[in-house]
Amino acid sequence: MLLAVFSDIHGNRQAFEACLKAARAKGAERFVLLGDFVGYGADPEWVVDTAMELAAQGAVVVRGNHDEAVNTTTETMNAEAQIAIEWTRGRLDVAQRRFLAELPMTVDEKERLYVHSEASQPTRWHYVRATADAAKSLISTPAHVTFCGHVHRPALYSMSVTAKMTSFVPKTDVPVQLLRGRQWLAVLGSVGQPRDGDPSAAFVLFDTESCEITYCRAPYDIASAANKIRENGLPPWLADRLSLGR
């Protein structure tokens, strides 16, 4: 089965639509959504509704820290992110907020683990920024492949049976076979707010039979997404950064 894995959509309808269209064109048969449906962007209602529809059709969906923040005041964020979350709270209805609140932190599926941040302490929202972070996550699960987001920058880590770590930044549209005998941690880029210098939306395709992973990008209407952020009175930097990919 060909899986399309998305993370960090962040209320960006234009980016989410572009990724869904691109993934379906490439033959995706099932979707996995790794959280952070809200925050930053100006279309949280549409994004959450779409996630709910995909979940009803069999998609795997987990909770991100921005999703958590919608329903609790204990999550602390930087000032701009906090403004966006408070604005989002006023936009979502009861059913949408309940959907986010009831999402699991992790999902195990055969030899795969899906989580927003990392596997060792999913509720602490740690970032995987280096091999030491990846190793901590990998040793906490027997899964052959762990998929996570949260960082907004693509990366691929692996650990051998002797705990030797490797890491690299995968190239767009170049398949990588995730060999047996190693554990893998696939850190996705962001659909709605990439931070790796490439402003196009990011997602991953994973072939469950061949164990090949392909990091993909989807260009989208950045100007429309940015303008809607400005029109709704959200912090200007949340709009400006979309065209910069940072």
Automatic annotation (TrEMBL):
<dbReference type="InterPro" id="IPR050126">
    <property type="entry name" value="Ap4A_hydrolase"/>
</dbReference>
<feature type="domain" description="Calcineurin-like phosphoesterase">
    <location>
        <begin position="1"/>
        <end position="209"/>
    </location>
</feature>
<dbReference type="Pfam" id="PF12850">
    <property type="entry name" value="Metallophos_2"/>
</dbReference>
<dbReference type="GO" id="GO:0005737">
    <property type="term" value="C:cytoplasm"/>
</dbReference>
<dbReference type="InterPro" id="IPR029052">
    <property type="entry name" value="Metallo-depent_PP-like"/>
</dbReference>
<comment type="similarity">
    <text>Belongs to the metallophosphoesterase superfamily. YfcE family.</text>
</comment>
<dbReference type="GO" id="GO:0016791">
    <property type="term" value="F:phosphatase activity"/>
</dbReference>
<dbReference type="InterPro" id="IPR024654">
    <property type="entry name" value="Calcineurin-like_PHP_lpxH"/>
</dbReference>
<protein>
    <submittedName>
        <fullName>Serine/threonine phosphatase</fullName>
    </submittedName>
</protein>
<dbReference type="InterPro" id="IPR011152">
    <property type="entry name" value="Pesterase_MJ0912"/>
</dbReference>
